[in-house]
Amino acid sequence: MKARTDLIVIGGGLHGLSAALQSARRGLRVVLLEGAFTGRHASGATAAGVRSLNRAVEELPLSLEAQAQWEDMTTLVGDDCGFHAGGQVQVAMDADAEARIKARIARLEALGMHHECWIGPDRLAELVPVMQPGALGAAYVARDGSADPHRTIRAFRAACLDTGVEILENHTVTWLAREETRWTVVAGGITHVAPTVVNAAGAWGRQIAKLAGDPLDVGIKNSMMIVTERCEPCLGPVISAQNRKLSFKQTADGTFLIGGGVQGRLRPGGGSASVDFGALSGAMSTTLALFPWVADLRLVRAWAGMEAATADLLPVIGPSRRAPGLIHVFGFSGHGFQLVPSVGRVIADLAETGRTRTELSAFDPGRLATNRKAA
Amino acid sequence: MTFDVAIIGAGPAGMQAACDLRARDLSVVVLDEQPAPGGQIWRGVERNCQPGSHLAQGLGAEYRQGADVARSFRASGADYRPLSRVWQIEESGKEATTQSWQVFVTREGQAEVIEARRVLLAIGAQERPVPFPGWTRPGVMTVGAAQILLKSGGLLPEGPVWISGAGPLPLLYAHQLRKLGGQIEGFLDTAPRDTLRRGLPHLNGALRDWKSLVKGLGWQAGIRLSGLRRETGVTQLRAEGGERLERIRWQTPEGEKSAAAGVLLIHEGLVPSVHPTLSLQCEHAWSDTQKSLRPVLDAWGETTRSGLFVAGDAAGIDGAKAALAKGTLAAIGIARSLGVLEDTKARQARAAGDRALSKARAARPLLDSLYPAPEGKISDDTIVCRCEELTAGQIRAAARRGAADPNRVKAETRAGMGPCQGRQCGYTVARLIAEAHDLPRAEVGFHNIRPPLKPVTLGELASLGKAKT
Ligand SMILES: Cc1cc2nc3c(=O)[nH]c(=O)nc-3n(C[C@H](O)[C@H](O)[C@H](O)COP(=O)(O)OP(=O)(O)OC[C@H]3O[C@@H](n4cnc5c(N)ncnc54)[C@H](O)[C@@H]3O)c2cc1C
């Protein structure tokens, strides 16, 4: 049996859900195929930092658009997704870090972007009283913050269902092929047919690309996270540090979430990632230098999440150069959460009209194309 | 240094395996949380069996036997490290010859990584958590916890004490408590009343272990003779009160009853400790008779991850005697996999071990059929996840909202994300999912286990980095 539709989205992470939702709002009939359940991988493992701070310049137009969308999430998905604009702070722990931050802010200013500002030690101590004094200052974005990832997944999923998106969980895509003007996609024993396919398969995006005849040179990241026991609320902004692997924040329920890109291990078979405690231990020094009191807190859980990563750490967003009717949206390299609403808008543009007003050249899949024969 | 074998758990299985492996001259490290060897069953056995200890008499002959095993273990030359909390196990090195495991352990606030070529998990069992309304109220605890208080300090509960549940442990505890002068108000037997019909088919096989049967009958008779109130066919237990337990209420086929209670001790059997094997993604099988998961093991006690072995109750609930036999068998398997015992010799050695194990297990089918895990309906108002305070009603609603996957329900509700890692709620959540989707329990599985396996502070984690450099 063949099920015909307008758009097939492969992958039920937040990017798949956002693309599906916003395409369906434009009147397209959308089927979303998810191999496990919505949010099973990066979107469920994420630190959920909503950050424009220290973004690559190429990503900033999308990031600043998303910043405004996060402030008004209820309009998009009927829930605020636990977004809290507590600010993001990037600490300078030494003179080199200070110089780099100030140079970056100057570059942004020259481009007419004023979202980041430099704050001195006094203002920093006011913002983050629980931090050890001694830092030289920080970059600060007041409108940034963080959200609740599971609430975000629930809200996007519910909005998709309300808009008529058909979500099929436990439906892994095992085969797809272009026949004349249509794609045939096989998942969970059902064949789906549509003119356009969105590849939002996250860490498996490169496998889908290869199946579709568009092999791309994309790697895997396995970033780790730690969550502690609950404490009284005492930390507003999300803290990171220039030149160091650190991301530190307190969630709405009082736990502390620590990450910052320390890498875990890929499990044999490549289906999931596991924690490397030796590496985590080494990375604790920055956290303890800034927040020595966390030493007494109990670690409740640690995990590693899989996500596709590119060499230039920029995502793959846009039409495939070699497979007509295929739109890639993956490879967010560990910082795609914030971009979910705006990138979904871009994919809906492409799915609906084949064009978008957003400049995508930096994200062009063509830059990562590998030789078909070699692949 | 890299040990040949790291054994986790110094109960019957771990101690026996350590002795046998040392006899083959392998280097062995034994890690255990407790301050002294013995595991759950022989907790405190060295101290309690010193001359003049009144506890040793009350705790019985089988308990005193543990002192001998502990003595051999102490003399075995194994590097025994008490008060060591293992919180993570990782594998490094892919080939069988270069394979090594890293065991992360904390001792006196200092974290350390211990390397070993093989790992034996002899981590025993935990009591099956059975949620009912009021089970989180102070005054309610498990029989196992009460027995720990008895063994580690001779502490007796203060009444009126009620025991509710089924299985040998409540009978044994009641027996021990009476011998030590403790008082029990009443016993609520939650096993269904058709004992004879369920037990009879297994009686013959169980007679191979007639000594245990006689002992069990003795405990039963003791309870009958002691004149304490005994209720059978008990269902729908509730623990009521304010800050503390004040009253218990239950149903029998004759109707609702209630009684004043100061302490309620519950026990509905044991389940293997499977968190480490689950977190290492070993294959597990669902046992319908014991209503629990157990790691899939080959004839040598090896899991589906080569180099990782399991022995004792962690491999399936069979009791202390079987745990000793399983320890011996795992030691043979490990010696064989390390190449110090050739295959034909190993097979011969195994045959004797298998016989001992099958004898030690003889009464198990009878016990499993006499004391089945309770399967009564869990009322919507019952707290299921203690860490996140989620009720059965909330879990049921989440279970109905999507795929029958415990990981999805965990992500949605947070059940299983708290400090206990689902040790309290995991089976119940899976059962509620199976119920909502009308699936056999075996098909639902268990949520993914995230490290750490035991609590560790961030300071301890950081101290690991310092220890390394
Ligand atoms: C530990 C960690 C911390 C992070 N912290 C932040 C942060 O603070 N801020 C930020 O902005 N970003 C952060 N990120 C990144 C962000 O979470 C990701 O960029 C984002 O969630 C990616 O979403 P996705 O939909 O592309 O991928 P995913 O959520 O991984 O979704 C891909 C989906 O595709 C499915 N799939 C794969 N193959 C198939 C197939 N063949 N058929 C059907 N389905 C398939 C998978 O099951 C999966 O559900 C973090 C990521 C990680 C891992």
Automatic annotation (TrEMBL), chain A:
GO terms, molecular function: oxidoreductase activity
GO cellular component term, pick one: cytoplasm
Gene3D superfamilies, alphabetized: D-Amino Acid Oxidase, subunit A, domain 2, FAD/NAD(P)-binding domain
Keywords: Oxidoreductase
Domain FAD dependent oxidoreductase: 6-350
InterPro entries documented for this protein: FAD-dep_OxRdtase, FAD/NAD-bd_sf
Presence of the UniProt keyword Kinase in the record: no
Full protein name: FAD-dependent oxidoreductase
Automatic annotation (TrEMBL), chain B:
Disulfide bond among keywords: no
Domain (BFD-like [2Fe-2S]-binding) ranges: 383-435
CDD domains tied to this protein: GlpA-like_Fer2_BFD-like
Domain FAD/NAD(P)-binding: 3-327
Keywords linked to the UniProt accession: Oxidoreductase
InterPro entries recorded: BFD-like_2Fe2S-bd_dom (IPR007419), BFD-like_2Fe2S-bd_dom_sf (IPR041854), FAD/NAD-bd_sf (IPR036188), FAD/NAD-binding_dom (IPR023753), Metab_Enz_Cyan_OpOx_G3PDH (IPR051691), Opine_Oxase_asu/HCN_bsu (IPR017224)
One Pfam short name: Pyr_redox_2
GO molecular function, one term: oxidoreductase activity
Name under which the protein is recorded: FAD/NAD(P)-binding oxidoreductase
Top-level taxon in the UniProt lineage: Bacteria
